[in-house]
Amino acid sequence: MKLTTDIEDEIDAIRDKIYEEIKNMTSSEETAYFNTIAEDARKKYNFLVIKSAVDDTAETLNSAQTP
Q1: Where exactly are the structural domains of the chain?
Q2: What is the 3-state secondary structure (H, E, C) of the chain?
Q3: Which has the least CB within 10 A, 17, 27, 30, 38?
């Protein structure tokens, strides 16, 4: 009996590939890597990027705590 599906195997292979690509990167390099992938997808599929409501909440909370 097989416990995983072909999709799970494919996802695991993708995760392994990404790990191998980023394992020696600094945090800043990783961020740039993922931002590049996201920007390429945005252009390819014509996504509209909007500012996160979570960021707005964090900014509001931070400014409220500043004396």
Answers
A1: 6-65
A2: CCCCCHHHHHHHHHHHHHHHHHCCCCHHHHHHHHHHHHHHHHHHHCCCCCCCHHHHHHHHHHHHHCC
A3: 27
